[in-house]
Write a structure and sequence with these properties.
This protein is 45% helix and 13% strand. The chain has helices at residues 17-30, 38-42, 49-57, 62-79, 90-96, 112-119, 143-152, 166-175, 189-194, 204-214; strands at 4-7, 14-15, 85-86, 101-105, 128-130, 159-163, 178-182, 199-201. It is globular.
């Protein structure tokens, strides 16, 4: 039985794609950055806000990254819930595990992470929401996973990590915990298969069926 279930946020619990892309486009337009497709922007998501801005502007200029990040934040705080929704079946999956300890580990900064989960009505399921500015290293570093294992007293075998990206798979591997990967998120399925997650499923409905089958 799993005692601690960990989740990524963007592309895993919530489809935040359109609002992130719109925030990035706002910064790109103001600062006259390169013209990128939606997929090119999406593929830059996952390693934190400053990394996202550096990638889309194709720059190592920290001042430019700071300006871009500030503009993104200004836009995103007003529009982060314009299109963002929970993925189908996410609430039912959280409800299935409501008697266990559940937490979010995301490279997305606060206050956005907590505000989104609160607005979507699921924040109360989690004992912790560890966002990208929590003082711990970004995923795929396993520090946040280890922190929650220590906090809850779970063993590695009693942990399930639910994510949607190669970064999540690598974080779980680095922490020595089981990983279930959803292909409904931001990453291409072939990229996920290359990382060889323990489980690869299409959506939360399939993941819930797997949880019941495995006796998690």
């Amino acid at each position: 039985m799993k005692k601690l279930i960990l989740y990524d946020l963007d592309g895993t619990l919530a489809d935040t794609r359109r609002d992130i892309i719109n925030g990035v486009r706002y910064a790109l337009d103001i600062l006259k950055g390169p013209e990128l497709t939606d997929d090119e922007i999406k593929d830059c998501v996952g390693t934190g806000l400053h990394a996202l801005i550096r990638k889309v502007f194709r720059t190592d200029d920290e001042k430019l990254a700071d300006r871009g990040a500030k503009l993104y934040r200004e836009h995103y705080k007003k529009h982060m819930l314009d299109h963002t929704r929970l993925y189908p079946g996410a609430r039912e999956f959280l409800e299935y595990f409501k008697g266990r300890k559940q937490a979010v580990i995301t490279n997305k900064p606060n206050p956005f992470s907590s505000q989104i989960l609160e607005s979507l009505g699921v924040a109360n399921y989690f004992i912790a929401i560890l966002a990208g500015d929590n003082g711990l290293p970004f995923k795929p570093d396993p520090a946040a996973v280890h922190h929650l294992i220590e906090k809850t007293g779970a063993t590695e075998e009693e942990v399930l990590f639910v994510g949607d990206s190669p970064i999540d798979i690598q974080a779980a591997r680095n922490a020595g915990v089981e990983i279930a990967t959803l292909s409904h998120g931001f990453s291409k399925e072939e990229a996920l298969r290359e990382e060889k997650p323990d489980h690869l499923v299409r959506d939360f409905k399939e993941l819930l069926a797997l949880a019941r089958e495995k006796g998690w």
